[in-house]
Amino acid sequence: MTILVTGGAGYIGSHTVHALLDRGDTVVVLDDLSTGVKAQVGAGAAFVQGDVADTALLRRVIAEHGVDSVIHFAGSIVVPESVADPLAYYDNNVVKSRALIAACVAANVPQMIFSSTATVYAEDAAQPLAEASPKAPISPYARSKLMTEWMLEDVSKATKLRHMVLRYFNVAGADPKGRTGQSTPKATHLIKRAAQVALGRVPHLDIFGTDYPTPDGTGVRDYIHVSDLAAAHLLALDALKKGATSTAYNVGYGKGASVREVITGVERVTGSKLPVKESPRRPGDPPTLISDPSRIKAQLGWKPAHEDLDGIIASAFAWEKRINT
Ligand code: UD1
Ligand 1 pocket test: which of 116, 190, 197, 313 has the largest number of ligand atoms within 8 Å of its C-beta? Predict the structure, then answer.
């Protein structure tokens, strides 16, 4: 049987495709290449260029490849972009996910894994955040993800589809084997931007907000290595295949680093002093997001292997040096 990976040419999708292929799974990638890079999809995966809302294409791909599982990465991910263009986010992340879910139900695909986000939680919820913590997303991006979580919950109650939602905290780093990494030319991720600054490709790093209610006034995030996140998808898939019921899991390490701590780490790892500029807060950014990962550890046996922040930064920096954008 085959796993359909939407957005499999993207950052997290491509790492997961490599992890699936590494253990011998059969994979078909569906990606519109709007931000993904085909060369970063593992050579062993079938590749289809197209849209997740193209129902006829979905029907054909599911039938031709014998798809029995879907991992749905395809979507838009930039918080401030979603604030500026909410309808694009509701279209890409909600309307298109609805079409994909409908195609899966119509074709009797029994299981789906969905990429959600730590930003669905309420800003005033106690940290670290557990899966049951109150939800009150503040950006259109985060709302679009929660809306799709709700669709999946309702559909899983009404049909045979079972799903797992993975709520990602801040994903960083690159494949230790150097096969893939974050390649979006205008990426906004802190660690990637800092690596670009260290390489002199971007003149300075903005610190977005120095007046947050955090120990040093800058935003605090739970940075996790993309390979540990990819591994979580494989465990979720295996659990679904064994009949697990639909649920959601946080995927983070349970510890936070501030923007200033990340900058210090990048300076330590790269040996270069980063030019920084203190800038206003970015719209839609919450002050702190730290995961309580105990559920995924206890229930799926997730064991992170790359928790060291300097190691995450080093792998992001190695990838950044390798690509030339
Ligand atoms: C990221 C993800 C989002 C995910 C969320 C989960 C992307 C583009 N965004 O959002 O999809 O749901 O994690 O927590 O992958 N910062 C700076 N200067 C910069 C860039 C960022 O100060 O140049 C700060 C931000 O204000 C924030 C922190 O660094 O406090 C992290 O920002 P970023 O890496 O953009 O990720 P999130 O916005 O948290």
Answer: 190
Question: Under CATH, what is the fold of the domain 190-221+254-322?
Answer: UDP-galactose 4-epimerase; domain 1 (3.90.25)
- Residue 70's H or E segment, with its range, is strand 67-72
CA distance 25 to 1: 8
> Has 141 been annotated as catalytic?
yes
- pTM summary value: 0.97
Report which ligand 1 atom has the smallest distance to the Cα of 212. 30
CA 274 to centroid of chain Cα atoms: 26
Whose Cα sits closest to atom 36 in ligand 1?
189
Q: How many residues are present in the chain? A: 325
Domain boundaries, the chain: 2-172+223-251, 190-221+254-322
Catalytic residue among 11, 90, 121, 141: 141
Q: Splitting the chain (325 residues) into consecutive groups of 10 residues, what average pLDDT does each group show?
A: 97 98 98 96 96 98 98 95 96 98 98 97 96 96 98 98 98 96 89 96 97 98 98 98 98 98 97 97 92 98 98 97 81
- For residue 272, what are its two tokens? 């270069």
- In this structure, whether the domain defined by 2-172+223-251 belongs to CATH 2.102.10.10 is answered with no
